[in-house]
Amino acid sequence: MMAHGRNGAAAPILRSSVMQYNRPGPRTPSDAPNEHPDTRLVRAGRPVAKYTGVVNPPLIRGSTVLQPDTATRRREGKRWLEQSLTYGLNGSETHFALENAIAEIEGGTHCQIVSSGLAACTVPLLGYLSAGDHLLVPDMVYGPTRDFCEGLLKQFGIETTFYTATATAHELAPLFRPETRVLFLESPGSHTFEVQDVAALCALAHQHGAVTMLDNTWGIRHFQPFQHGIDLSIQALTKYVGGHSDLLLGSITVNDEAHWRRVRSTAGMLGQYASPDDCWLALRGLRTMAVRMNHQMQSALHIATFLSERPEIQRVLYPALPGDPGYEMWKRDFTGAPSLFGVEFKSSFTTEQSDRFIDSLSIFGLGASWGGYESLIMPTYGTIHRSHDIPLEGPTVRIHIGLEDPQDLIADLTRALDAMQR
């Protein structure tokens, strides 16, 4: 095919790999009602039916996108809400494939990829709140989200009320004001893992005209947010989607056109952009996420049970463990659990002894984050900040179970618990 350039000379139209790739549009669970969620993890965000070519969406980097003529440029410029190739900041085929995949997994219609899990929390809050507004946030929310509310949002004249982690709809109702614009949820909560009655709280928020946002990172693959009344679902794709502790990404998913317009425009105005290399790695991690999470959940349940029976342990904070205060609600609303939980030592133990326990471990790495292939531990005592009473008496740690053999992990924990008392 030939085209005439600006100088009138005939020039070939070069179709790049971007234009050659048969990119699928967004799918929703209703498009494949008989597919198991794990099948969708393999198929989402890539061409699967009657397609000949490479299996994986290609990695595409770039800032400038060339258009064949001014009419095309004007037309594409009007499609800023869509997955249109206009400029690198608006995404490439690599970004679009991941957006489609996450939207499908979360049960939404549109997804905005951002640079980190924290950005996935802060971008929608900035998009929906203005000076004089009020929002409600659970007291056990992710620490950096709390810092953002108490720092930048307060600086902008936005007031935050931190409500009790286990508040029922009846208990939360008096906290709503005429200026309450957002109800933020995180279930289970960071470090202490309280489970919220998402459906009941969302119904209450909608009665007051508030938008509901959920940090659903713990519930990836196991909790369908939009079936419970959530308007915006937030993910730290850094965790299980990446799966290998080598990327930073976040996502904001919606199932409503008006919410999509607000989220997409806010992310654009803030210059939010995710590395296409990280998006490509996330797509790769997505394909094995079900296998990894299944193995890690079984190991976590085994190890959490072991720890709950040790004399040094006051309790294990894990909703998937029978006897946990949130177990019945978790069993009702979730189809499974990730491999992240908390451990509270008996109050007779000191923080120095807890430190000795951590320092005596040889397989568990001491580090933040979770969802990767490796087991991790980090102290949480002294780092939990609440407006209400902290329901803890002894030193606490957070444990993430990786892909190592669970018996090796138990042996490592046993040695460290013995060392803790010496």
From TrEMBL:
EC number: 4.4.1.8
Pathway the protein contributes to: Amino-acid biosynthesis; L-methionine biosynthesis via de novo pathway; L-homocysteine from L-cystathionine: step 1/1
PTM-bearing positions, type N6-(pyridoxal phosphate)lysine: 239
InterPro entries tied to this protein: Cys/Met-Metab_PyrdxlP-dep_enz, Cys_b_lyase_bac, Cys_met_metab_PP, PyrdxlP-dep_Trfase, PyrdxlP-dep_Trfase_major, PyrdxlP-dep_Trfase_small
Gene Ontology MF terms: cysteine-S-conjugate beta-lyase activity; pyridoxal phosphate binding
Keyword annotations of the record: Lyase, Pyridoxal phosphate
PROSITE patterns hit by this protein: CYS_MET_METAB_PP
Region (Disordered): 20-39
Keyword Lyase included in the entry's annotation: yes
Necessary cofactors: pyridoxal 5'-phosphate
SUPFAM superfamilies: PLP-dependent transferases
Gene Ontology biological-process annotations: L-cysteine catabolic process to pyruvate; transsulfuration
Family matches, as Pfam families: Cys_Met_Meta_PP
Entries under PANTHER family matching the protein: CYSTATHIONINE BETA-LYASE-RELATED
Record-given protein name: Cystathionine beta-lyase
